[in-house]
Each structure stands twice: as C-alpha cells, then as structure tokens.
From TrEMBL, chains A, B:
One of its GO terms (molecular function) is DNA-binding transcription factor activity. InterPro entries: Homeodomain-like_sf (IPR009057), HTH-type_TetR-like_transc_reg (IPR050109), HTH_TetR (IPR001647). It comes from the Bacteria. Residues 43-62 bind DNA. The keyword DNA-binding applies. Keywords: DNA-binding. The keyword DNA-binding applies. Residues 20-80 form the HTH tetR-type domain. This is TetR family transcriptional regulator. The lineage of its organism: Bacteria, Bacillati, Actinomycetota, Actinomycetes, Pseudonocardiales. Pfam families: TetR_N (PF00440).
Amino acid sequence: MRFGGRSTEILREPQQDRSRATRQRLLEAAIECIAEQGFAGSTVAVVAERAGVSRGAAQHHFPTREDLVTSAVEYVSAQRLAVLRSHAVDLPVGLARTREVVTLIGRMYTSPLFRAAINVWVAASSDERLRERVIGLEAQVGRESHRVVVELLGADESRPGVREAVQATLDLGRGLGLANLLSDDGRRRRRVLDQWAAMLAETLADGDRPTA
Amino acid sequence: MRFGGRSTEILREPQQDRSRATRQRLLEAAIECIAEQGFAGSTVAVVAERAGVSRGAAQHHFPTREDLVTSAVEYVSAQRLAVLRSHAVDLPVGLARTREVVTLIGRMYTSPLFRAAINVWVAASSDERLRERVIGLEAQVGRESHRVVVELLGADESRPGVREAVQATLDLGRGLGLANLLSDDGRRRRRVLDQWAAMLAETLADGDRPTA
C-alpha cells in the first residue's frame, strides 16, 4: 500500500462524498417525482430509478418511503430558505422592499417543492404513520420560513399586528400555491400579491398605531 | 286502479323524490369519505356503502368516480355558498361586518368540504382525466365564492385594489385551510384572520385612495 497507514482514511473521504451526493440526488428526485406524479406513485424504487441509483443503495439511505419523503421535504425546504435568505443583501427599502419579498414568497409557493409538499400533507392527512412525522416537520419548516420572512421584510414583530400580518403573508402564499396547482394563474397571482404588498407595507410602517 | 289514469303520474313523483334523496345521500357521503380517507380510497362502491345505497343504484346515478366526485364538490359547494349568503341579512356594519365575514370564510375553508376539495385537487394534479373536469369546476366555484364574498362585505369593486383584496381574502382562507389539514391551528388562525379583517376593512373604506 503506497500511502501506508493513511490509505484507508484517504479512501474514506471520497466515499463519504459519493454517499452524500447519492443521498442528495435521491432527495431531489423524490421532490420532482412527488410534484409530478403524486405521492402514491412515488415509491423508493421509482425515485431510485429517477435518480439513477440502485434500489439497494436507495434503501440503504432511506429504509422506508416515509424516511425518504420527510427527509426530502426537510432538505429541499432548507435549501430554498437559504436561497430566499441570500436575497436579503440586494433588497431595496420601503414599499419596493415589501413588494420584492412578497414576490419571492409567491415564487416559493409555486415551486415544485411546494407542489410536492401539498401532496405529502394530503397523503399524511389520511395516513397515521406519515402524519406523525409530517406534523413535526411542518411546524419546523413553518417556524424557519416565518423567521426568514421577518428578516427579509425587516419587520418589527413587537409592533401590534405585525406578527400576524407576516403569518398572513405565508398563509396567503400557501393559498396562492394551492390555486396554482391545476392551472397557471400567474397573472391573477401577481395582481393579488401587489395589492397585498401595499397593505402589508402600510401595516409594517404604521405598526405603532393600533390596527385591530 | 283507484286513481284511474293518473296513478302512474302520482307514483312517479315520490319515485323522483326518492331518486333525488338517494343522489344527495351519495353526494354528501362522497365528501365525508374523501375528507376522511382521501381520494384513493373513495371509490363509488365505498361511498355507496357509506350512504347505505346499493352499488347498482350508485352506479346508475354516477357511472364513474369522476362523475361522483365532481358532482359532490359542485353540489356541496353550492349548498355551502347558499348558507354563507344567508348570513347577509344579519351582518353588522363597518369593521364588525368585515370581521364577521372573514370569520365565516375561515370557517368555510376548514370544513370537510374543503378537506375533500384539497384531496380532489391534488388527485387531479396527477390525473389527466380528472384534471380537465376539476379545472372547469374550480373556476366556477371560485367565481361564485368571489361574488358571494363581495356581496357579504358590501365591497365596491370599482375602487382600486378592492377586487384584489377580496381575492386575497379567499386565497388566505385557502392557505389557512391547508395549514389546518394535519392539526387544528384554530387559535393561530383566529389571530391571523382578526389582523386580516382590520387591514381589509381599511382597504374597503379607503378604496378611493390609490393603494398600490
């Protein structure tokens, strides 16, 4: 052995990289697969084939479909939130900022990730085993999304009504995403988001006036 | 025959009534069944059993599951909208009115009908045949819901931003309904809707000021 005692260690690193890359491919393929074909058709075997990974390797990473699906939603959500947060540096101020953030939120809720997430939620609503896992995941992703949006908007949640207005923004995004599920209603969505941005900007600015 | 030539006609009416009652039982059972068990498990046979109707009779009314499911969403939506509209006479004025209407909308989107509708939309998003029928139905129910809400709010849609704010209210309701799918978040929902009502009332009142 050329590298003496260190060869095993050196070999282990690329193997770990490969293993991580395989895992990521599976997670991304799972989201695409669920978004396009629904939850029922997205078994570990189907996702493995889509990712170009052997069924055995896929099952080594994710023994059950619940493992694969919840890990996929968690991983891709974290990625999307990191991308969303990265916009923070380029944001303008005032109404223009609120508008841009609201547009980014609208985009997030019409992505394949959200299509996949809706499918997983609906499947979980009539599947006890999946439900338990998804409830915790949903709460965690919801909290993180809220935190990122507060940061992007520069919102002061100690002001009355601001916290609820930020939550309403995420609920509105979710509703618009659901409306977009069967047919693209992008034009309508942009008008609705524009109006909401105007209303939200006023609440963020007038936060010390009692609003409710 | 005691009633002479008229007996057939007299017999036909109760038969039509019975047929209509059977149809309604099937439609209501379909919504309950989909809301609880999801779309996949809600076949015509399963719904027929729940409604206490023979499989043959069910198939006479609804030859395919697509017929049953889309008719159910249409029928129960029309019923719910009629109930919603009936509240128009008791509504207070000003912010109190907006609050009450927003509360009614929140309730509509957390009902079994909406749970069933989400299941149908999601199933339709990966089922070409169902999709075609659901897209038309969704547009129709959406238009009618919008009209009823405009009426209940007493909103003047010729004012800038008002139409979009009403649409946003329905999109928000949809998003809140989706958030409620896996676990009851009624407390959070009430706070969000309260804040929303305050912002919406301002837009409805200040409609002549440019808002966006």
